[in-house]
């Protein structure tokens, strides 16, 4: 029996990753900037490139990189990662007859305007910016042309990653299951810190096929104020609402556990965004352990007197959950 009789190709996807894009959009002296890390992967009738060494079905990954840069130059949607990702994915499945699905991930790095005393605009300086955090906005898009190039379906998941938060009180962990393996002491006041990864998934959307010859057109069907806009993938305020809901809930919740706080954060995002169908959080514990100073006759272990802590990187608890709309 030959090797070909023992195996078959059951899944294949390829493309370009870590395409770094920085774009300036100039409106006179007022400039907007975005910095993205982009990944674009393709599926379709590409199996023979694996099984028959047939490169005729391969859109070179270098071409995918060049397309990403070109669309970053000409797309009117470049400042919004959800719309830009959908534009790029729509172009890829529309341009190439044998490509049926495109998967685009856009990771946006944070830049904010510098504020200068006496400046004219309350929004900040017109062309000077600073990196104001390590967290990133993340958008994952799939555009599916399986049912025809004129019947495109978009699937969008967005969110953020690496949002580091900490509260020095307002968190407890008591009455958990105990058995012969339990050494953890119950505590009614503790530091709560985590690095938040959040993703929320919208209802599937119908995408209009590009009508122009080069397949570069991308139509945004809903604008602000129109029915169905608020809370949809087209609503550019969803990311800020989700971020605010996460931070505010974390801050004010008298947390009985990471699990309980997570659930409240997700509930608020679903309540405030009508077309978000599910919310997923991954919250790794960032442990801060009080230093035992009893050998010096100093109480640094009682929660109300614990003031000096050792940050512990590993091991770490990890709490995850998905909360879905009923």
From TrEMBL:
<feature type="binding site">
    <location>
        <position position="173"/>
    </location>
    <ligand>
        <name>urate</name>
    </ligand>
</feature>
<comment type="function">
    <text>Catalyzes the oxidation of uric acid to 5-hydroxyisourate, which is further processed to form (S)-allantoin.</text>
</comment>
<feature type="binding site">
    <location>
        <position position="61"/>
    </location>
    <ligand>
        <name>O2</name>
    </ligand>
</feature>
<feature type="active site" description="Charge relay system">
    <location>
        <position position="287"/>
    </location>
</feature>
<feature type="active site" description="Charge relay system">
    <location>
        <position position="61"/>
    </location>
</feature>
<dbReference type="GO" id="GO:0005777">
    <property type="term" value="C:peroxisome"/>
</dbReference>
<feature type="binding site">
    <location>
        <position position="190"/>
    </location>
    <ligand>
        <name>5-hydroxyisourate</name>
    </ligand>
</feature>
<comment type="pathway">
    <text>Purine metabolism; urate degradation; (S)-allantoin from urate: step 1/3.</text>
</comment>
<feature type="binding site">
    <location>
        <position position="62"/>
    </location>
    <ligand>
        <name>5-hydroxyisourate</name>
    </ligand>
</feature>
<feature type="binding site">
    <location>
        <position position="285"/>
    </location>
    <ligand>
        <name>5-hydroxyisourate</name>
    </ligand>
</feature>
<feature type="binding site">
    <location>
        <position position="173"/>
    </location>
    <ligand>
        <name>5-hydroxyisourate</name>
    </ligand>
</feature>
<feature type="binding site">
    <location>
        <position position="61"/>
    </location>
    <ligand>
        <name>urate</name>
    </ligand>
</feature>
<keyword id="KW-0576">Peroxisome</keyword>
<dbReference type="GO" id="GO:0004846">
    <property type="term" value="F:urate oxidase activity"/>
</dbReference>
<feature type="binding site">
    <location>
        <position position="258"/>
    </location>
    <ligand>
        <name>urate</name>
    </ligand>
</feature>
<dbReference type="InterPro" id="IPR019842">
    <property type="entry name" value="Uricase_CS"/>
</dbReference>
<feature type="binding site">
    <location>
        <position position="259"/>
    </location>
    <ligand>
        <name>urate</name>
    </ligand>
</feature>
<dbReference type="Pfam" id="PF01014">
    <property type="entry name" value="Uricase"/>
</dbReference>
<dbReference type="InterPro" id="IPR002042">
    <property type="entry name" value="Uricase"/>
</dbReference>
<comment type="similarity">
    <text>Belongs to the uricase family.</text>
</comment>
<feature type="binding site">
    <location>
        <position position="285"/>
    </location>
    <ligand>
        <name>O2</name>
    </ligand>
</feature>
<feature type="binding site">
    <location>
        <position position="285"/>
    </location>
    <ligand>
        <name>urate</name>
    </ligand>
</feature>
<protein>
    <recommendedName>
        <fullName>Uricase</fullName>
        <ecNumber>1.7.3.3</ecNumber>
    </recommendedName>
</protein>
<feature type="binding site">
    <location>
        <position position="61"/>
    </location>
    <ligand>
        <name>5-hydroxyisourate</name>
    </ligand>
</feature>
<feature type="binding site">
    <location>
        <position position="190"/>
    </location>
    <ligand>
        <name>urate</name>
    </ligand>
</feature>
<dbReference type="GO" id="GO:0006145">
    <property type="term" value="P:purine nucleobase catabolic process"/>
</dbReference>
<feature type="binding site">
    <location>
        <position position="62"/>
    </location>
    <ligand>
        <name>urate</name>
    </ligand>
</feature>
<keyword id="KW-0659">Purine metabolism</keyword>
<dbReference type="GO" id="GO:0019628">
    <property type="term" value="P:urate catabolic process"/>
</dbReference>
<feature type="active site" description="Charge relay system">
    <location>
        <position position="16"/>
    </location>
</feature>
<feature type="binding site">
    <location>
        <position position="258"/>
    </location>
    <ligand>
        <name>5-hydroxyisourate</name>
    </ligand>
</feature>
<feature type="binding site">
    <location>
        <position position="259"/>
    </location>
    <ligand>
        <name>5-hydroxyisourate</name>
    </ligand>
</feature>
<keyword id="KW-0560">Oxidoreductase</keyword>
């Amino acid at each position: 029996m030959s090797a070909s009789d023992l195996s078959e190709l059951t899944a294949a996807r390829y493309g370009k990753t870590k395409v770094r894009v920085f774009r300036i959009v100039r409106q006179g002296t007022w400039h907007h900037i975005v910095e993205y890390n982009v990944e674009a992967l393709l599926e379709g009738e590409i199996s023979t490139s694996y099984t028959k060494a047939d490169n005729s079905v391969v859109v070179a990954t270098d071409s995918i990189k060049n397309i990403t840069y070109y669309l970053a130059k000409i797309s009117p949607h470049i400042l919004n990662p959800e719309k830009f990702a959908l534009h790029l994915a729509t172009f890829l499945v529309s341009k190439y007859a044998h490509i049926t699905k495109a998967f685009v991930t856009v990771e946006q790095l944070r830049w904010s305007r510098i504020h200068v005393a006496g400046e004219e605009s309350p929004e900040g300086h017109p062309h000077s910016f600073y990196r104001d955090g390590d967290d990133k906005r993340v958008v994952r898009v799939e555009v599916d042309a399986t049912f025809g190039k004129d019947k495109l379906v978009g699937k969008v998941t967005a969110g953020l990653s690496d949002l580091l938060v900490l509260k020095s009180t307002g968190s407890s962990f008591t009455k958990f299951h105990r058995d012969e393996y339990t050494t953890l002491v119950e505590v009614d006041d503790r530091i709560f810190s985590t690095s938040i990864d959040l993703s929320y998934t919208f209802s599937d959307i119908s995408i209009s096929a590009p009508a122009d010859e080069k397949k570069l057109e991308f139509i945004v069907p809903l604008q602000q104020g129109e029915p169905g806009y608020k809370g949809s993938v087209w609503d550019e305020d969803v990311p800020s609402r989700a971020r605010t809901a996460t931070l505010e809930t974390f801050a004010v919740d008298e947390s009985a556990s990471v699990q309980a706080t997570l659930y409240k954060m997700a509930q608020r995002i679903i309540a405030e965004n009508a077309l978000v169908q599910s919310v997923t959080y991954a919250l790794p514990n960032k442990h801060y352990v009080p230093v035992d100073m009893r050998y010096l006759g100093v109480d640094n272990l009682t929660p109300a007197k614990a003031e000096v802590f050792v940050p512990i990187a590993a091991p770490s608890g990890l709490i995850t959950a998905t909360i879905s709309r009923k």
